[in-house]
């Protein structure tokens, strides 16, 4: 296999603290994640001990308030941490993104009392979160969800099934959107449900083409009872909370996609500069050089796009359109770049002896999760031309 080490991404970071943070992440990634990534992915093993280490290192709550155990980091820094992690193992990068998404509702819409009580453990206490919006019959049409929460005195009783849940069955807490009122988006409320709640169970993990180490499962709520103190926001506010969370979450997916694409490019460059055909490295052939140039350009464009959206978010400005654009462009880029990487490696690219085929399989899911790329195009078009059917 190629042994030419890729050069680290030259990042534009706002502070010395951020530069130190990236150095810490690279050290953990190379020392604790990279050596076992391929083997554990092939075996379908989730690296819970890595997430414990990330929590102990302050990396599971980076964009949240340090008062509650967060890292007080701007999104432009947090996303670059995700990119670094995803480049080594997507199961870890995406897992951190999902955990951050799962913490968003309470960190942003929870009461002071709720935040004091729950956030320290969620952000830095070793817990792992899951986000429960999609259902077997409501994916892109999330407002039609059927999981119900019925008021019973000071409790809510939740019944239904959520689908495609990352960390389903292993999460310590679930941020759950359930119907408490009328049909449509205005009848949905958000809840924080502990992972060991009575009546909560998970199906066997889905058998996926990629990301085998990251469990994705249906989660069943069979009369799960939670106190009203675990309701997040007002009754009927849950769908608005979910959409707000997804705007930020899509940036996490974009950053993970660029991480995977960068890893695939590094692998392709390493192979192309060492593999010789017709008496010279295949990197000397113009057709292949142009492929590498296009791959690198697409990655740089994607990185600039997600960082521009993150800086809007950090400045408190609207960023939903830019988040959808970043998710769309970066995940499509990951699919193109990883496919090209397999092509550059030729027959070797199609074997599990090289990581290119794993990158290609992993890239595909990023075009689907947290809003398919068709949904992203709808979101972008609505910002440009207004809602459909006016």
Description:
The chain has 390 residues and is α+β, with helices and mostly antiparallel strands. It is 51% helix and 14% strand. It is built from ten helices and ten strands. A four-stranded mixed beta sheet has the order 1-4-5-8. The chain has a four-stranded antiparallel beta sheet with strand order 2-3-7-6, with no helix packed on it. A two-stranded antiparallel ribbon has the order 9-10.
> Total strand count, please?
10
Encode the helix/strand succession as letters: HHHHHEEEEEEEEHEEHHHH
Shape descriptor reads globular
Runs in which pLDDT lies below 50 for 5 or more consecutive residues are none
Number of helices: 10
Helix content: 40-55%
In terms of structural class, how would the helical and strand content be classed?
Answer: alpha+beta
Mean model confidence by pLDDT = 96
What is the compact description of this entry?
The protein is built from ten helices and ten strands.
Topology diagram in text:
Blueprint: H1 16-43, H2 48-56, H3 75-88, H4 90-109, H5 112-124, E1 129-132, E2 148-152, E3 155-166, E4 173-179, E5 188-194, E6 200-202, E7 216-227, E8 231-232, H6 238-274, E9 276-277, E10 280-281, H7 286-314, H8 320-345, H9 356-366, H10 373-385
Parallel strand pairs: 1-4
Antiparallel strand pairs: 2-3, 3-7, 4-5, 5-8, 6-7, 9-10
Helix pairs in contact: 1-3, 3-4, 3-6, 4-5, 4-6, 6-7, 6-8, 6-9, 7-8, 8-9, 8-10
């Amino acid at each position: 296999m190629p042994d030419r080490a890729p050069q680290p991404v030259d990042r534009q970071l706002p502070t010395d603290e951020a530069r130190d943070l990236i150095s810490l992440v690279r050290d953990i990634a190379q020392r604790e994640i990279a050596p076992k990534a391929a083997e554990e992915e092939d075996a379908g093993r989730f690296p819970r001990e890595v997430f414990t280490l990330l929590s102990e290192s302050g990396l599971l709550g980076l964009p949240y308030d340090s008062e509650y155990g967060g890292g007080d980091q701007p999104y432009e820094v947090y996303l670059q941490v995700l990119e670094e992690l995803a480049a080594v193992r997507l199961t870890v990068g995406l897992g951190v993104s999902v955990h951050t998404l799962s913490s968003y509702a309470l960190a942003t819409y929870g009461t002071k009392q709720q935040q004091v009580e729950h956030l320290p453990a969620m952000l830095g206490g070793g817990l792992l979160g899951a986000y429960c919006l999609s259902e077997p019959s409501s994916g892109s049409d999330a407002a039609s969800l059927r999981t119900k929460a019925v008021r019973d005195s000071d409790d809510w009783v939740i019944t239904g099934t959520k689908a495609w849940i990352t960390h389903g069955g292993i999460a310590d807490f679930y941020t759950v959107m359930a119907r408490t009122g009328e049909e449509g988006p205005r009848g949905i409320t958000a809840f924080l449900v502990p992972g060991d709640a009575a009546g909560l169970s998970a199906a066997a993990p889905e058998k996926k083409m990629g990301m085998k180490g990251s469990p994705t499962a249906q989660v069943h709520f069979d009369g799960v009872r939670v106190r009203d103190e675990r309701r997040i926001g007002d009754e009927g506010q849950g769908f608005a909370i979910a959409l707000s969370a997804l705007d930020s979450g899509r940036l996490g997916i974009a950053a993970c996609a660029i991480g995977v694409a960068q890893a695939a490019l590094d692998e392709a460059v390493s192979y192309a500069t060492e593999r010789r055909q017709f008496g010279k490295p295949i990197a000397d052939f113009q057709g292949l050089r142009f492929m590498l140039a296009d791959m690198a350009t697409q990655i740089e464009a994607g990185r600039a796009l997600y960082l521009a959206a993150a800086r809007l978010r950090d400045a408190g400005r609207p960023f939903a359109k830019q988040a959808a654009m970043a998710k769309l462009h970066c995940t499509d880029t990951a699919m193109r770049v990883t496919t090209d990487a397999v092509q550059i490696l030729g027959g070797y690219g199609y074997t599990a002896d090289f990581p290119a085929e794993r990158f290609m399989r992993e890239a595909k899911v990023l075009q689907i999760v947290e809003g398919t790329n068709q949904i992203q195009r709808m979101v972008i078009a609505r910002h440009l031309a207004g809602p459909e059917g006016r």
